[in-house]
Amino acid sequence: MSVDRRTVLRLLAKVLALFIALNVLFALMNPLPALGRISLYNGLVPGRERLPYGDDPAKAYNLSLYNLDAMFASQRLSRGAKPADEFRVLLIGDSSTWGWLLQNADTTAGLINAKNLKTGDGRAVRAYNVGYPIMSLTKDLLMLSRAMAYEPDMIVWLTTLESFPSNKQLTHPIVLNNADAVRSLITDYQLRSDPNDPAFVNPAVLGRTVVGQRRSIADWLRLQLYGPLWGATGIDQYIPAEFEPAHRDLEADESFKAMQPPTLSKDALAFDVLGAGARMAADAGVPMLIVNEPILISQGKNSDTRYNFFYPRWAYDQYRELLRDHTAEDGIPYLDLWDLVPQEEFTNSAVHLTPTGSRMLADRLAEAIVSQR
Amino acid sequence: MVATDKTAPVTAPRVAISQATVRNAALFVLSVLAVFWLQPATPIRQMDFWLPVASLSLAVIVWAATSPAFATSWRPGRQTLIDASVIAAVVLAVAALRFVEPLSSFVTRSRPPDVFVVAVALVIVAGLALLAGRAIGPRPAWTTALVIALITMLVVLKWEPLTQAFAALLRLTQSQSTAQASAFDVRWLGFSYIFFRLVSALRERAAGKLPSMTLREFVTYVVFFPALIAGPIDRPERFVKDLRANYVFNLADATEGARRIATGLFKKFVIADLIAIFALNEVNAAQTQGAGWTWLLVYAYAFRIYFDFSGYTDIAIGVGRVFGVKLPENFKLPYLKPNLTQFWNSWHMTLAQWFRAYYFNPLTRALRTRQWQMTAIILAGQLTTMLLIGLWHGITWNFAIWGLWHGAGLFIHNRWSDFAKTRLAIPPERPRLQQAVNVLGIVLTFHFVALGWIWFALPSVPLSLYVFGKLIGL
Question: Which end of chain A is more exposed for a tag (fewer CB within 10 A), N or C?
Answer without folding.
Answer: N
